[in-house]
Design goal:
The structure holds two protein chains of two kinds.
Chain A: H1 2-24, H2 31-35, H3 38-41, H4 59-71, H5 78-83, H6 88-104
Helix pairs in contact in A: 4-6
Chain B: H1 2-19, H2 22-28, E1 34-38, H3 42-54, E2 59-63, E3 68-70, H4 75-79, E4 89-91, H5 93-97, E5 102-104, E6 108-112, E7 117-120, E8 125-127, E9 130-133, E10 137-139, H6 158-168, E11 175-180, H7 190-204, E12 210-215, H8 224-234, E13 239-242, E14 247-251, E15 256-259, E16 262-265, E17 268-271, E18 275-277, H9 279-283, E19 298-299, E20 304-305, E21 311-313, H10 326-344, E22 354-362, E23 368-378, E24 383-386, E25 392-393, H11 399-417
Parallel strand pairs in B: 1-2, 1-9, 2-5, 9-21, 11-12, 11-17, 12-13
Antiparallel strand pairs in B: 3-4, 6-7, 7-8, 10-18, 14-15, 15-16, 19-20, 22-23, 23-24, 23-25
Amino acid sequence: MKQIRKYLSGASALALLMATAAAHGAPPAGRLLASQCAQCHGTNGQAVSGMEKLAGESEGEIYKELIEMKARIKPEEIMHRQAAGYTDAQIRLIARYFATSGKVSTTTTSTTPTTGTSSRNKSRGDD
Amino acid sequence: MFSHNRRKLLQVSGALAAAGSVPLLARAQVAAPRVVVIGGGFAGATLAKYVRMWNPKIQVTLIEPNPSHVSCILSNLVMTGALGMNAITLRYDNLRSKYGVSLVADRAVGIDAVNHIVTTQNGSRIPYDKLVLAPGIDFDAVPGLDTAVLPHAWQAGPQTLALKAQLDAVPAGGTFVMSIPPAPYRCPPGPYERACLLADSLLRRRRAGRVIVLDANNDVVAEPHTFHTAFQTTYASVIDYRPSSVVTSVDWANKTIHTNWGPIRADGANIIPPQKAGKLVVAAGLLGTNPATRWAPVNPLSYESTVVPHIHVIGDSQGTGQPKSGHMANAQAKVCADALIRYFAGEAPDPAPMTNSACYSPITSKTASWLTVVFGYDAASGLMKPVPNTLAEAPAPSGDHYEDMFGWANNLFADSFS
């Protein structure tokens, strides 16, 4: 019992430290790049409606999909043009950020849609 | 990078085990950095939210007189009656309750850039370490134009409903005149979208006379394929598109619009005046000494003014040459937020920021088009430049795009305001 309490106090000290490190250190790699997806795919990749959610997708999945999109741009796909804007290395950072932040993020961003009735679920890639 | 941080964390963790947690807590309680934001549109709201979300140790105060923002995005659908005002009214409550932004419901009237103090209409003096201006746009006067009588509706709100009333009052077979200012102005495809929806609305009510579109530019500014097609085919019987046409004055007592090509009689009108940076940007001297400068010059790595230090300008008032839109304002706000956080940590801004634009325009009551581009920082020129192969418009308007438009808008609204 005593040992458990000791473990817990260690864990909260670590949490405090992580918060402090985050407060003063460099922003996580890929965060700013990934935030540019949020206009359509929701804050931290948590889409509110009508667009694909990115949070928690695997790194490999997001990376492969974006690389394929920019390699074969279809004129009717807006997302293919977006993918074409980023280097492979930037796409790797974005994919890694969403894959990781979706699992550790504590920020909830679910909100009620304010407008419209879009229910068609955007399928990914070349729909 | 990741492993480096982790190693650093482990080292500090070891130090903590030795020293205990109290000294660390005390050290963290140095005075919190203060960011003050003026203007709660897409730029200001996103900046306030993201600074707090990414670093809650920074105090953020948003000075904005209105209790909510009324979005220009989708506002042409309020003009046609497809949506109500509630659909485009975005409240600030979440910025306070979810992110801890301090809201000051007041109008900023003065900036003391030497002592870092903003003064408000009600006499408050609000100190800042970093000031972010996001005041949107201001307008040139058009001789004879009274916007209380003829609303431009290029800032959404009461004017949106006043424009709807103008449209609803056009008699059968009547003439509606609208004008497009010289670029750059807020929302490049917006005026052409409005022309289409004016025509669609008149056609659907079987009242179609004419919509005369006076464009101060020598061609369609955005989505030329989409809008030329709409004007020449979809709305060929209604829209009369006239490039290089400038409104010189308005005589609404006689229902006459004067142009560089002569006078035009109209039953209804929507004159959108030429645009420039918001009043506070001008008052703070951020345009510099060249009187021809209409938008604030900034460093696109941080959006800090190149004229006055520690004042940043984001959204429509900034002069990087990126399109002026809610989506772009949101994009720039994140770059600025990241740069502010790094600044307070003693670091330089991200050296290679990216921004993107994506927007959907309704073309009819059931279809929409889209326009997109990605910008990257070009170190050689110091400018944000479009990445090759990313600037594109939808090949044709469609019902799917119309539906996607709401998915885009809902996510953009939520990402900026909640």
